[in-house]
Write a structure and sequence with these properties.
Blueprint (H helix, E strand, L loop, with lengths): L6 H44 L1 H10 L1 E7 L6 E2 L4 E14 L1 H4 L3 H15 L44 E2 L6 H4 L10 E2 L1 H12 L37 H19 L5 E5 L3 H9 L5 E11 L5 H4 L2 E3 L5 H6 L7 E3 L2 H5 L1 H5 L3 E7 L5 E8 L6 E4 L3 H17 L3 E2 L5 E2 L3 E8 L4 E7 L11 H6 L8 H4 L9 H10 L8 E4 L21 E4 H7 L2 H11 L1 H10 L20 H6 L8 H6 L9 H12 L3 E2 L5 E5 L6 E4 L6 E2 L4 H15 L2 H7 L7 E8 L7 E9 L6 E8 L8 H11 L5 H4 L6 E2 L1
């Protein structure tokens, strides 16, 4: 019998108790683990077996995608707050590649059928012609034309232009249109065929692969499939159009992140109804805003918006724009894109299999653009444009080679204040921004070039309107004094090989000082004074006054040329010493814009303070609650003109306004003016001349300066009527704001 008090026994019992407790704990842990495992298995069973089909269905129809959303574009107003460009609600069609699934070819074919029925145009930037014979278009978004060793456009053995494959970026190889082993130069037909084969539109045999019931009626007895391949085995127009749409989709899949394909814009309710009736998966109708024009004037200044060009995509991409964003293309819309556009937003959207949005979450909300207030007075602008149109309509100024009257080809006018602010900038013929897109092809082909902004991009010889510049250059450089005279003898005999005439020849002006020479526009005076002043000095002063230089205006402009050896070389003309005579009277290779000429006159009569031209008055926040930017005019430089020199030049321009031919127009004005006429030869033919007129007012305290040009016009004096009308409008006692019609404007 064991002794219960035996220490060994006590130790054994204790060990047994510990073992039993450990076993109990282990069993409990195993039970808990089994219970948890059983629960996990039950959850998995429920998810995969019981509810698996539901979860799979939900997962198949819920697609999350990040999208860039454009902001609402800011408004454009004139100096008095009248709205010129605003926004209106518009509908657009967007395509979603993933939501279309395997039926995308049939979906796209049906969508294009609806577009053709309703006359809806869609986005297609594929740089291949819309019909055979296939050729590259002028605007190639992803490529450049190949060139040979001499820099000439490259052609293949058939004489067809080829495209540089390396300029396609990586898209062609990414999409499988072109293999690495293939030649680098492809014709448009070769590239289009490769694309169509990759897209599944044609087989390499070729044979149509697209199932399109609506085209079944096009089946031919020869078994030409669904009619998408023409009788000659080539690619039909329908296939080319489908290829263009697929190109847009592939472009976004391979080159762009977070960008939807805006297929068509500005669609109407009839089109929307047909799309919805067909239940086209992945085809979404969205709302946006489109530009609405509250005026029919200032088209060349305001400009227009459009889609991003391929060559500017990288720039806009870095700024956070989507590929389908609307941006300024020309004019103020382009110049103030940063202010007008605002900031794009980003949203995470959830869509079902049909492409319908079933939920969204803003990651960054878009910020509306600012409102841009211009220096333009739209009422004043309207007057200037109407005067140009009226003048042009009634002019039959010269006889052409066939003896028939030739009308004025085009006109332009620029009016600036003394600090470069643009009050009116007109070009005729013009166009209507509201119908610009519909009429673009017709406008582009119009020989009168209504799309050209002649006021900032038309280059004209200034003719005698340059003589005040020659005079001030000679006076300020010390070549002559105000009282010095030159005798007009009808012909200038300094050079032995040439004897240029005065316009009055065989008559003569006699002995004249600078004031008289400006009034009479005496060529002999300026031949002599210009020669003595030197071409280098004339060029220096011309540039000081902004001629042959960019004015600084925010919209597109040309720089022009100041006559001299450099300009002649540019036009492949030799420079002779006697050419300075033509330069001094505003002929030769002098070429300036009307805006440059107006600002040169403003610089002259304000005492030599040269300002940059500008259209911006101020910017306001999207809700108009605050001014975010104000243009502060400051002289770029100052020409230190002597008062007596300036007075002599201005007096000559004033005296001209008092001559009979000018006074009949200016005598009734409430202010005194100074002016200068010019007639510039554009060729050796007498019938080819431009009329130029510059003017400023009031004479004692100038406020505005202007320039008017008529292409193919008569003598510059014929434009005095227009100048007087412009002055009358500006200095009207009623005020510009009250005189403008409100039919196409809104007071803000």
């Amino acid at each position: 019998m064991n002794n219960p008090f035996d220490p060994m026994h006590i130790q054994e019992e204790k060990a047994e108790r510990e073992a039993r407790r450990l076993k109990l704990r282990t069993n409990l842990l195993i039970a808990v683990f089994c219970a948890v495992l059983a629960g996990f298995v039950a959850v998995l069973y429920q998810a995969q077996i019981v509810s698996g089909s539901d979860y799979r269905a939900n997962s198949s129809v819920r697609i999350s995608k990040s999208e860039v959303v454009d902001s609402v574009r800011g408004e454009i107003l004139d100096r008095y707050g009248r709205v010129l460009v605003t926004n209106e609600v518009s509908y657009y069609v967007a395509l979603d590649w993933t939501a279309m699934g395997s039926d995308r070819l049939d979906i796209l074919a049906r969508l294009l059928d609806i577009c053709r029925e309703e006359g809806v145009e869609w986005t297609d930037s594929l740089p291949i012609s819309q019909s055979a014979p296939w050729s590259y278009t002028a605007d190639i978004p992803l490529a450049s034309q190949a060139v040979d060793e001499e820099g000439n456009p490259a052609v293949n053995e058939k004489g067809e232009a080829v495209i540089n494959k390396t300029a396609l970026g990586s898209l062609a190889e990414k999409c499988g249109w072109v293999g690495k082993a293939e030649k680098s130069n492809l014709t448009a037909g070769e590239l289009l065929t490769a694309m169509c084969q990759t897209f599944g539109l044609i087989e390499k045999t070729p044979r149509p692969r697209l199932e399109h019931p609506e085209l079944a009626g096009m089946l031919s007895a020869a078994g030409q499939g669904l009619g998408l391949i023409d009788q000659g085995g080539g690619i039909s127009q329908e296939v080319r159009q489908l290829a263009g749409v697929l190109y847009e989709l592939y472009l976004r899949l391979n080159e762009v992140d977070n960008s939807q394909y805006v297929f068509a814009q500005g669609v109407d309710m009839t089109f929307i109804s047909k799309v919805k009736e067909n239940a086209l998966a992945g085809v979404r109708i969205e709302t946006t805003t489109a530009r609405r024009y509250q005026t029919g004037y200032a088209a060349h200044v305001l400009g227009y918006t459009g889609k991003i060009y391929r060559n500017t995509w990288e720039y806009y991409k870095e700024l956070g724009y989507s590929m389908d964003a609307t941006v300024g293309v020309e004019g103020v819309e382009l110049a103030f894109e940063e202010q007008l556009h605002g900031a794009s937003g980003t949203r995470l959207i959830e869509k079902d299999s049909a492409g319908n949005t079933i939920g969204q979450e803003w990651r960054k909300e878009p910020e509306p653009g600012e409102n841009v207030v211009l220096t333009l007075d739209i009422g004043f602008q309207a007057t200037v444009e109407d005067l140009l149109a009226q003048y042009s309509a009634r002019q039959e100024v010269k006889l052409g080679e066939d003896g028939e009257p030739e009308p004025v080809k085009g006109m332009a006018a620029a009016v600036v204040d003394m600090s470069g602010g643009v009050l009116a900038l007109a070009s005729y013929p013009t166009y209507d921004l509201a119908s610009f897109r519909e009429n673009f092809n017709e406008l582009s082909r119009d020989e009168s070039k209504p799309l050209n902004n002649r006021a900032t991009m038309g280059l004209y010889a200034p003719g005698s309107t340059f003589k005040p510049l020659t005079a001030i250059a000679a006076l300020d450089s010390g070549t002559i004094e105000p009282r010095d005279t030159v005798e007009c003898t009808a012909y200038y005999h300094f050079y032995p090989d040439v004897s240029p005439a005065c316009w009055i020849a065989p008559g003569r002006h006699g002995r004249e000082n600078v004031t008289q020479a400006i009034k009479d526009s005496c060529n002999i005076f300026f031949y002599d004074v210009g020669r003595r002043t030197t071409i280098e000095t004339l060029q220096e002063y011309a540039r000081k006054f902004g001629l042959g230089e960019y004015t600084g205006i925010e919209i597109s402009e040309y720089k022009g040329w100041v006559a001299g050896p450099e300009a002649n070389a540019h036009f492949n003309l030799p420079w002779y010493g006697g050419d300075i005579m033509n330069a001094a009277i505003g002929q030769g290779t002098n070429q300036f814009t009307p805006l440059q000429l107006a600002n040169y006159v403003a610089t002259l009569v304000n005492g030599g303070n040269h300002y940059a031209c500008h259209l911006l008055k101020e910017c306001k926040s999207s809700d108009y609650s605050q001014v975010t930017e104000t243009y502060e005019a400051a002289p770029l430089h100052t020409i230190d003109l002597q008062p007596e020199d300036l007075a002599a030049v201005k007096q000559g321009m004033y005296d001209l306004s008092k001559t009979y031919t000018m006074a009949r127009w200016f005598s009734s004005l409430p202010v005194e003016v100074g002016c200068k006429t010019g007639t510039a030869e554009t060729s050796a033919k007498a019938a080819s001349t431009d009329a130029i007129f510059v003017c400023f007012a009031p004479y004692d305290d100038p406020q505005i300066a202007l320039c008017i040009v008529a292409e193919g016009g008569d003598a510059g004096g014929s434009l005095a009527e227009i100048a007087a009308g412009i002055m009358a409008q500006y200095f009207s006692t009623d005020g510009s704001l009250n005189n403008v019609s409100r039919e196409n404007t809104l007071l803000h």
